[in-house]
Write a structure and sequence with these properties.
The protein has 451 residues and is of the alpha/beta class. The longest helix has 20 residues, at 289-308. Helix 1 packs across helix 10 (289-308), helix 2 (55-66) packs across helix 10 and helix 6 (166-177) runs parallel beside helix 7. The strands form 3 sheets. A 7-stranded mixed sheet has the order 13-12-11-10-16-14-15. Helices cover 34% and strands 17% of the residues. Bound molecules: N-carbamoyl-L-aspartate. N-carbamoyl-L-aspartate is lined by residues 55-56, 127, 133, 136, 166-167, 229-230, 270-272. N-carbamoyl-L-aspartate binds at residues 55-56, 127, 133, 136, 166-167, 229-230, 270-272.
Length: 451
């Protein structure tokens, strides 16, 4: 098993076995944090942060220094050419010419996916808007493993802003992947988990989450850990969410007693806290959040060493020839199909925020009977619809009802097909239609919006 040259955009990019390899590697760095003989000494890490960070950026940089590598750091994108209007696509292409691995944080959903598509170097998502933060999940799962000896079978309550909190979006998936139980505890009903996450947990892992309403007066169900998060004030989009967020109770000893949280329950938090977690709990034996912070260094040393392909060298203590990581060109071709006249409807998506630089791309999630194709945005997973597709090799437009569509979707490479929101656009792009009757039908088709 090797992780050399891989991207980590979502926690789903890693299998359970691969996460366990990261943990076994982290164990060795945990025992020996000043890694000799500096296996990453010939490599450079670029950290590019378009949003504030303390823990994530510094622990990645500390990890790289401890591996003997060097670091190029943009802690504030206001001091980069992004401030002059440079697109993210151009920015990451430039960075990939200077560094061997990139850690990126950006407010747009799907930003890391775009970077992974364009960079010939491994990309680690350090947070893309409200979507995912997979390496925080590696730190969280490692903490659970250290504290309980296992993750499988544990029950973890996720509390706070489950709508915009990217840490919990990745963590819920990571827990499900390890056979742990998730209890969702949104601090207010308007900040519950996105429906797409619930659908994913069911479809991918066959797991049904539990629910607990922290403001409802009922005691907390039996859990091994209570994972607290702050309200993501910078992402609240609607007035009523902001209003609800004002009344969030402070978690302190009294509140824990009121909820019936017992002495064996671990208290976790990705930090930073913003008033929701009382400092009086810092000395409480249940509180694990500063240990969580410390585990980030060995976990991120392991992640960097494995993606750079130098972990093996560390174990054999040899001084092998340095190798620059270069992805296979095919690995950098986006896996999504181009969409014409189908904008991503998520205003926070990188494709919506930087439309000049990022063409909308989609994966096809299914074919509706004659009514269209069900799509998911390649960058942010937002649903969309197409009426049919253009087959570039045959030069023909095929409506969704055409039986050939399913085969094409299963076998064609991304750049051989173009998805269309309206049949008329296909005609304008020079795609032919198979029969005159179909030409009339295609002309009448209009952009279908997801229901
Ligand atoms: C989190 C983040 O940036 O998503 N912080 C972190 O990386 N530990 C949590 C947060 O900002 O609330």
């Amino acid at each position: 098993m090797t992780l050399k040259g891989r991207h980590i955009v979502g926690i789903g990019d890693l299998t359970r076995e691969e996460i366990e390899l990261i943990f076994r590697t982290a164990d060795r760095f945990h025992d020996r944090p000043q890694s000799q003989p500096y296996p990453a000494r010939d490599y450079q890490l670029a950290t590019f942060f378009f949003e504030p960070s303390t823990r994530t950026r510094l622990s990645f940089e500390s990890a790289m220094h401890r591996l003997g590598g060097s670091v190029l750091s943009v802690a504030d994108a206001a001091h980069s050419s992004a401030a002059k209007g440079e697109s993210l696509a151009d920015t990451v292409r430039v960075v990939s010419a200077y560094a061997d691995i990139l850690v990126l944080r950006h407010p747009a959903e799907g930003a890391a996916r775009l970077a992974a598509d364009l960079c010939g170097i491994p990309v680690i998502n350090a947070g893309d808007g409200a979507r995912e933060h997979p390496t925080q999940t590696l730190c969280d799962l490692y903490t659970l493993r250290q504290e309980f000896g296992t993750i499988e079978g544990l029950t973890v309550a996720l509390y706070g802003d489950l709508k915009y909190g990217r840490t919990v979006h990745s963590l819920a998936r990571g827990l499900a992947c390890f056979g742990a139980n998730v209890v969702f505890a949104p601090v207010t009903p308007s900040l519950g988990p996105p429906p797409a996450l619930l659908a994913h947990l069911r479809a991918e892992y066959g797991r049904e989450p539990g629910w607990w309403d922290p403001s409802g007066g009922a005691p907390i169900p039996r859990v091994d850990a209570l994972y607290l998060t702050r309200i993501q004030l910078e992402r609240l989009r609607h007035g009523h969410e902001a209003l609800d967020a004002r009344d969030v109770p402070r978690v302190d000893r009294r509140q824990l007693r009121r909820w019936g949280v017992d002495d064996g329950t671990l208290l976790m938090h990705p930090l930073p806290r913003a008033g929701e977690l009382a400092p009086e709990l810092d000395a409480d034996p249940r509180s694990a959040y500063f240990r969580q912070v410390a585990y980030a260094v060995p976990v991120r040393m392991a992640t960097l060493a494995l993606l750079l392909g130098v972990a093996e060298e560390e174990w054999s203590s040899g001084w092998g020839a340095p190798r620059r990581i270069q992805l296979e060109p095919s690995a950098t071709v986006p896996t999504g199909f181009i969409g014409r006249g189908i904008p991503c409807l998520n205003p926070a998506c990188i494709a919506s925020r930087e439309p000049e630089a990022v063409a909308p791309r989609f994966s096809c999630a299914g074919v509706l009977d004659g009514a269209g194709l069900v799509l998911r945005c390649h960058y942010c997973d937002e649903p969309a619809r197409a009426v049919g597709l253009g087959d570039r090799l045959a030069g023909v437009f095929r409506a969704a009802a055409d039986p050939a569509v399913r085969d094409l979707l299963a076998s064609a490479s991304p750049d051989e097909l173009v998805l269309f929101g309206a049949g008329a656009d296909a005609g304008r792009e020079g795609f032919g239609v198979t029969t005159p009757a179909e030409a009339v039908a295609v002309g009448a088709l209009d952009l279908a919006r997801p229901g």
